[in-house]
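Sample intake — Basic blue protein
Collected from: Punica granatum
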Amino acid sequence: MSQGRGSAMAVSLLLCLLVLHSDPAHAATYPVGDARGWSFDSAGWSGGKRFKAGDILVFNYNPTRHNVVAVPKGSYDSCKTPRGAKVYQTGNDKIKLVRGQNYFICNFPGHCESGMKIAITAA
C-alpha cells in the first residue's frame, strides 16, 4: 500500500514540475507606429489592437529628434514631464506594459502638444 502512495506522490510531483516549467503565454511585441515608427501621427496607431500586461511596445525613432517618456495621466493630458519620470532616448526603446493605463509622450518642445503621445490600456 505504501508503494501505491509513493507512486501517486511521484506522479503528483511530476505534474507540479511540468506546470512550473511550462511556458506561460508569450507576450506580444508591438512596434509603435508600425513601419513609420514613433512619430507625430502615432496617436491613432493603437486603435483596434488588444494589449495585455506584459506585452512589449517598441519605440523606434531618431533620438536626436524625439524621445519617449512614461508618464501618469495628468502629465499625458497636460504634456508636462513630472520630476523623476523615466525618459527613454535610445531610439529603439522596449517598454513592458503594466495592467491598466499606460501613457507615453515625447517631451521635446512642442511635440506632445502636437499630438506625439499615446495612451494604451493593457488587460
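Post-analysis note: The beta strands are 29-31, 56-60, 68-71, 86-88, 92-96, 100-105, 117-122.
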